[in-house]
What does this fold into?
Amino acid sequence: MDIVTFKVNDFLRDSQILLKYKDTYGYIKEYNTKWLQLVKENPYMERDDLALILTIDDNVAVGEIVLLSGAIKINGIKDRVIWLGPFFLEKEYKNSGAGAVMILKTLSFANSISKGVVQCGGGKEVRELYKSIGMKELGPLRKFIYFYSAEPILHKFIKIKPILKFLSIFLTPALKLYYVLKMGKLKQVLEYKTVSRFSKNIEEIIERKKANFFPRDEATLNWVIKLSGHPVIPFEIYSGTRLIGYCLLRVISLEGTRHNLPKIAVGELLDYMFDDEAKENKKDLLIFAINYFRDKGIEIFLFQHCDDEFTVLCKKFGMIRLGGHSVYFRPPEKINLAPGDEWFLTGGTSDAIF
It folds into this structure.
């Protein structure tokens, strides 16, 4: 069994470099032309950066870690950071130590360029591994759900489809009435303009952010718009003629295997930032996002955040809290994290917007 590393330069020299390995478990097919474009156009990626680590057994790829470069602003200083993307290892190899070796190779690379490492989510077993290598948990994010249809709720209890559909006809209007009573008549005040790409003007807002965060500057946002695996819908937010922020929405399909749920169309408020963090602006954004996905065949609205005012608003709007993703960060040696440090995190942070 071998742990093999690949730099950005390796893929630039030979885009077919992985075809020498057998793809029994479907790892290699993911590294196609679009993935290579994602790596090449990443505004923070450098040619000598580590991009991929594979575990190879008898010439078969049995595990992977994908690495991407991004930005962090911590203690007022902006720097590059290394994101751990997908991290998989086939079940029969989980006690082989291969996973730990892949993580150690990632840390060795990050230490060699004096950068921090970020990872999102993961089960209990993986969380313990992250903490054992010095990663600190940020957040966790708070995940709130809004239901446009009663079907996802009913499906947990009723498996006979005709009965489920029949009951949904009556319960969905009742669900709508519940939200009307919770939310009242809410008027949207701000203007949300769809854009094909963001301009440099957005960076003035991002630069003024005071909390520690992972900034999505103009170059990063446009990279995400162009190449994200789940297409995003970008908006600039205006108060009158003044640009005061941005938000990213997206539609994804989730399959709730844990609770035996079918595929569900989910609309998500993925990422946002305001120049003015006034509660009224946050309320307006939540109204806009919920209403945007209404009558578009979307069954659930999802919003993850790490903000006390948004938590109050979500509860007021009748949204249900269901856990939330965690973000793990291992700072470079020159940076010390204090337990009380303020962090600005969004759903986009928790999956690096992919």
Q: What stands out?
A: The domain at 2-138 is CATH 3.40.630.30 (Aminopeptidase). The two ends are 30 Å apart (CA to CA).
